[in-house]
Every structure is written in structure tokens, then in C-alpha cells.
Description:
The chain is α/β, with parallel strands linked by helices. Helix content is 32%, strand content 18%.
Amino acid sequence: MSFSFLPVPTSSHALSPYGWDEDWAAAFAPYAEQGLLPGRVVRVDRGQCDLVTPNGPMRADTAFVVPRDPMRVICTGDWVAVDPDGDPQFVRTLLPRRTAFVRSTSTQRSEGQVLATNIDHIVICVSLAVELDLGRLERFLALAMSSSSGDALLGDGRTTGGADPQPIVLLTKADLVPDVATLSYLVQDIEGIAPGVQVLPVSSATGEGIDVFRAVVSGGTSVLLGISGAGKSTLANTLLGEDVMDVKAARDVDGKGRHTTTTRNLLVLPEGGVLIDTPGLRGVGLWDAEVGVGQVFSEIEDLAQQCRFHDCAHEAEPGCAVLGAIEDGTLAERRLDSYRKLLRENHRIAAKTDARLRSETMREWKRRGAEGRAAVDFKRGRIR
């Protein structure tokens, strides 16, 4: 797939269409003094990344930045410093990230995988061509609401302190639900599990909701997330006004999509804003998502404050307000089951991560201790 970048002028605001602002300029100032060039990563593939810089598009090698922590691997949406005179050209450093969307990996190493960085909107695409999976949506929302602008957002350890990214739920392929009443019911159903989140039905085929969505994403950087077949790339093409992203029809049998998009691609929208299109996600494992789980299931956490016992497990305890709400029908049992499941998963990942970090720290202490003893022995003439 080929990429066509917007023409980049040579003015000091050449990167403004890509999200460059005064705060990024201030963060980059020390590297500018070294003669380095700012660039935003628009695509990463096999150790190389496509960048847009004030001098135009560039491909650079990421081998110079070889982090031990997979959370610091260069990702689509990152801002970096690159040596324009290098041969080959290398990314020299990664600027601190404002925000990041992170999920756990499918490996047994309990590590996080960064899917997109420096984002302002997390757009969760849910296809109306298939039956709604509320549990999967709750999982996406928990991760989205945990995409913090706070601690450890990478780069060199510092943060720039941007606002938390805002989640949006897009009900795509709304034209496949011709009954207005049914569509309204679906929207209300989603709003019930997504407190405070904008839920917007859209259709790339008819244009329904596109103008509203275009206005939302016209400022800042937005990332499209969802399973294959949710219509992400079609939606990106609609906003771009041209077929930039390859798309394929969903299977007629089950409405599931084929994995057409294979990399995360940053695209500049003609009416303002930046869009990151991502491949379909088969799995979305939680990663440090306890805050997000609490926000998604805020009604359960509010009820828990009314329980007789502060450590109530909401299972069989007397005076449990959560179980009382289930009995009187004000809380769906499915919600409590989903809440428990996500909390258990997040606690399990956190425990594995803590154990891995302790093990890595212990290995580092042992390595330093061995080096120290070897230095003492050499100084005292025990080894030569």
C-alpha cells in the first residue's frame, strides 16, 4: 500500500496539520539545538518507520532506539527526533508521550503493547451488521478510560501532561438498521453501559452521522479501534474523500471482516484533525485498567459504597446494596458478572507484571553486584 502525504510547507508551522503545537516545540527545543529534526511517525514496519518532517516525508531506521521495555517501542503517533544528515537516517530519540492506548500482549510475559500514542479521541467502532457484544464493548471502554496522560508515558521518562483522551462509540453500518425505533433502542442500550460517552450511529454508505463525527475529530488526533469488519478503513476513506485505505467486504455468513489493514497508519484529514487507522483487534487484554473498569461500571461502585461491609464481595453478604439492586431489577446481573470478570483479569495481569518487574530488578541487582565484586577483585590484584 502506498501513502501520499500532504504537501509540507517549509514554514515553522510545517507540521501543524499533523498536530505540532507550542508544547511540542518546547519539548523538542533541546534536540533542535543538536541539529535534529522533528518528525511524527505515520507508520512503523519491521524496524523502520515512515515520518513526516518539516523537510517532507522520510523513512528512518529505529535501531538507534532499542528499548528493553516494549512499552517504549516506537509507535504510530509518536513524535521523534531524527538526524537529517545521517546515512542511513536514524530516529535518535523518542519524545515523551502525552497519552497512549495500551493493551496486554498475548504472550506469557505480562507486557503491555502500545497501539497508538498522543491521541485525543479513542473511537471504538461497533458494527451493526452483527449482534452487539456488550462484554467486548465494556472491555474496550475500560481500556479507553484507562488511557492516562499521567505516569510513565514513555520517551525519556518525562511527561508533557496532556488531557486524557476521550472515548467515543461509533455504531457503524447504521444503514443496515432501517427501523428508526430499533436504532434508537440500540443507542440507548450502549449509552447504558458507557456513562458519559458519546454514542453516534454512522453510515459510510448513506452519510448518516458522518458530518457530526467529522466535526468531533477535526481537532486533535483520533484512533479508530475495533474488530475486523467494523468498517474502520471504510470510515477513514469517507473522511479523507478518497480510497487511501484498502477495504474488503465482510463475510456474508457471519458478517465478520477480513484483515485488510495490517499496520497502524496516521492520516491527515482534509478538514482538520489526524486519524490513526488500526488493524482489527482479535483480542483486547486489559492493561492497568482498574480506573477504567471503575468508570465503566460506575453504578456498581456507587452501590458498593452503600453496602453494610466496606469489604463486601457482593456474593452473599447481608446488607449488600449491589445484590439488592439485582433483586429489584435496577442492576442487570450480566453487568455484575462482567464487572467481576474484568476486575479479576486486571488483578491477574497486575500480579504477573509485578512479579516480572521484581524478577527483572533482582537480576539487575545481581548483575551490578557481580560487576562491583569483579571491580574490587581487580583493584586488589585478585584477577588480571
